[in-house]
Amino acid sequence: MSEIPTIEINKETIIKPENLVYKPPKTLFDTPMHYCPGCGHSTVHKIFMEVVEEMGIENDIIGVAPVGCSVFAYYYMNVDMQEAAHGRACAVATGIKRVLPDKFVFTYQGDGDFAAIGTAESIHAANRGENFLVIFINNAVYGMTSGQMAPTTLYDMVSTTTPYGRDPKIHGHPFKITDLIAQLPGAVYVTRQSVHTTANVRKAKKALRKALEIQKLNLGFQLVEIVSNCPSNWRMTPLESLKFIEEQMLPFYPLGDLKVPEGI
To answer: pLDDT digit string (tens) for 194-232?
Structure first.
């Protein structure tokens, strides 16, 4: 019998294949993580790049990252990436997909980008049925620029621009853009997931894979919203922010599929 190969982690640690629990996908760059401790971005990066590797499409996918915390996606995702101006990711993705229709195309956007400055591009791309995936991270604040109120900020939620809480009479109502897009005929797969528990991470990963499989069928616009946390700007510990997701975010942004193609 041939000898079982081993994997050398360092000079002190040798792990045999049958004992290897997890190995990072090759679609992730081996680079130090710079996101704040407890941030959900890192988990979404990981599971999406796992999906890309498992589907074997790493050479056939193009991502678009606009301004915001999402702008750093190309530091970590080892696939072709294109930066876009703030709010213009869906417009750039539309151009890429129309020029290269055989490629998988996705955008990676935050709530301030997708649901505020980019609202027009987001809604009209969905309504036209552009065949690409939007990964929409909803953490209810502008994360990169110190936690200002975003369209998705909850009622009474404190931010740097709503120090006494969001008042709908002054600031308007929280914007459920995912629910709105689900009503558009060009949007074929619309779902809301989270990554705040292990079970939900698995569900989010399945949703991301389903979106890419639907894209392969050329059916139309796909949107996967991820309800996430921002411990730094929420002024919470990572554990406190996960509790806030469960008790405050999810009652207002309930998880689950909003729209799925028939027969899929």
So the answer is: 999 999 999 999 999 999 999 999 999 999 999 999 999
- Kind and range of the H or E run holding 48: helix 41-55
Tens digits of residue pLDDT in 62-77: 999 999 888 889 999 9
Return the number of other C-beta atoms located less than 10 Å from residue 127's C-beta: 15
- pTM for this predicted structure: 0.92
Token output for 98: 């129309």
Residue 248 lies in a domain: yes
Closest CA to 139 of 228, 77, 232, 54: 228
Asked whether 52 and 79 are in contact (CB, 8 A), the reply is: yes
Q: Answer whether 27's CB lies under 8 Å from 58's CB.
A: yes
H helical segments located in 100-171: 111-112, 119-128, 168-171
- Looking at residue 5, what is its pLDDT? 58
Amino acid at 146: S
For the chain, the domain total comes to: 1
Q: How far is CA 154 from CA 62, 131, 171, in A?
A: 33, 31, 11
160's tokens: 């740097």
Residue 133 sits in a domain of what CATH number?
A: 3.40.50.970
| 152-162 b/e (C-beta count within 10 Å ≥ 16 → b) | bbbeebbbeeb
